[in-house]
Amino acid sequence: MNDAHTLDYKDITARQKATWSTGDFHVVSRGIVGISEALCETVDPRPRERVLDIACGSGNTALAASRRYCEVTGIDYVPALIERARTRAEAEGAKIDFQVADAQDLPFPDGHFDVVVSVFGVMFAPDQEKAASELLRVTRPGGRIGLANWMPESFSKDFFGAHAKHNPPPPGAASPLRWGSDEGLEALLGAGADEIRGTRKTHRAYMRSIDHALEIFSTYFGPTRRALDAIGPEKGKELLGDLREVFERYDVSDDDTLVLEMPYLEVTARKR
C-alpha cells in the first residue's frame, strides 16, 4: 500500500513526465494500434458523442474514436506527443482537440464526456486515487469507461519487473499494474462506477528480432532509456540481459523474427 502522507506526488509526476518525454514513445505505441481499435469496438462510441482519451500519447485511441465521427479530446502531459498526435490527426483530416494536461488534474467540467478511454495511460499516474477520481468526475452519469491496462502477471509483470529490479520506483508508490487486477479496479473505480468488467485479452507485437526489440526500447521507450542513463553502462548491460530473457520467454514466433505475446486487461465500466 502507498502512504499518501510520505509521497511527494508533485515531484514524482515531474520525474515521470521527464521519463516519458525521453525517446519517442510513438515509435513503440504504433505497434499497439490494434489494442486501441479493439477497445473502441468494445466501448462502441457513437457519432457526436463526446470522447476523452486520457494520456493519449501520439493519439492511437483518439484517432480510432474520431473515425466514428465522435467529438474527441485527447490529453497527455508530454508536449512532444501531443504535437505528434496533432500531426497525425491533420494527416487524416480528423478534427481532434489535443491538449497538454495531466490525468491527475483534468481541465474539464464535471460530467462533460459520454465516453472516457485510456490505453496504458491513466494507469501510470502516480496518484492513482486522484487519477481515478478525475476520470470518474469528467464522465457523465451513465457514461462509459474503457481502459486497456497491463496486468500484474505474465509479460507485463516480467517486463516492468526487470526495470524495477535495476531502477526501483519511489518507496511506497503503488504499482501501475494495480489497474490490471479486479481488486485494484474495485478500489479505484468502485465508489463511482458500476458494471466494472475486466476481460483478459492478448496482443501480439512484431519486431525484426530480439536485438531489434532491445534497440527499439533502449532508444525510444522512456522508462528503458532513463533506467539505462541512471544505472550506468555495466548495470545497463544487466538490465538489457534481463529484458532479453523476457523477450525470449514471450516470443511465439516460429522463425528468427520476434512475435511478443502480451496479455492485457480490457476494462469497461459505467459511471454511476
Automatic annotation (TrEMBL):
Q: Which residues form the Methyltransferase domain?
A: 51-143
- Asked if the record carries the keyword Iron-sulfur, the reply is no
Gene Ontology terms, MF aspect: demethylrebeccamycin--D-glucose O-methyltransferase activity
Domain of life per record: Bacteria
Q: Which SUPFAM superfamilies match?
A: S-adenosyl-L-methionine-dependent methyltransferases (SSF53335)
Per its UniProt record, what InterPro entries does this chain match?
A: Methyltransf_25, SAM-dependent_MTases_sf
Gene Ontology biological process terms from the UniProt entry: methylation
Its Enzyme Commission number?
2.1.1.164
Keywords assigned: Methyltransferase, Transferase
Q: Give the CDD domains listed for this entry.
A: AdoMet_MTases
Q: Does the keyword Ribosomal protein apply?
A: no
- What Gene3D superfamilies does its record include? Vaccinia Virus protein VP39
Against PANTHER family, the record matches this protein to: 2-METHOXY-6-POLYPRENYL-1,4-BENZOQUINOL METHYLASE, MITOCHONDRIAL, METHYLTRANSFERASE
> What protein is this chain from?
Demethylrebeccamycin-D-glucose O-methyltransferase
Protein's gene: rebM_2
